Amino acid sequence: MKNFTKEVLFSKDAILGRVKGLAEDIRRDYYGKDLLLIGVLNGVFMFFSDLVKYLDMPVKVDFVRLASYGSGAKSSGDVRVLKGIEMSVTGRDVLVVEDIVDTGYTVDVLIKMIKAKNANSIKVCALIDKAERRMVDVPIDYTGFAVEKGFVVGYGLDYDEQFRYFQEIYTLHETGV
Ligand code: PRP
Predict the structure, then answer these.
(1) Those residues with Cβ within 8 angstroms of residue 58's Cβ, 6 or more apart along the chain or in another chain
(2) CATH number at residue 141
(3) How far is the CA of 32 from the centre of ligand 1 (A)?
(4) Whole-structure pTM over 0.85, yes or no?
(5) Distance from the alpha carbon of residue 100 to the mean position of ligand 1, in angstroms
(6) Is residue 66 a contact partner of residue 81, using CB atoms and an 8 Å limit?
(7) Are 58 and 93 in contact (CB under 8 A)?
């Protein structure tokens, strides 16, 4: 089992303040429209819930679960659908909601899936846009925080299924075995 030290990157207040800001932007852009939010499980669960609460307007929600395969921690871009879209997206305004965009493979595949179903519009909202490992140039229309590099956990984000329950976001530093 590896040991880690963690350092607060975004406090609970900073996160909620930013989520509220994102919700205001999204409400302004979509008010009165037939908005479908598609969250990417599992990491998105806390962000998605707070975003919908702050949006405070009628929206429909759906979730997908995608898995990216590669060697070790390195994603190959081989993204498989473990749980697909269930709601009808045809003619709807769709907002993909991600906790983090890293290589960009997941969002890229999801945008292609939604486009194939003839949505009226597709945009992406990511709490964290992490540029360090980006492999595909994906459009992010609403960004919570831009993070250059580092391993981030908490507020839904995990390391090996740990740390999702934290209300803050931390940077993780490995200290050895
Ligand atoms: C993470 C994250 C995004 C995806 C982003 O999910 O939640 O969905 O990776 O990575 P990418 O830009 O490199 O494709 P993960 O597959 O780790 O599953 P999880 O959400 O269950 O933690």
Answers:
(1) 35
(2) 3.40.50.2020
(3) 31
(4) yes
(5) 7
(6) yes
(7) no
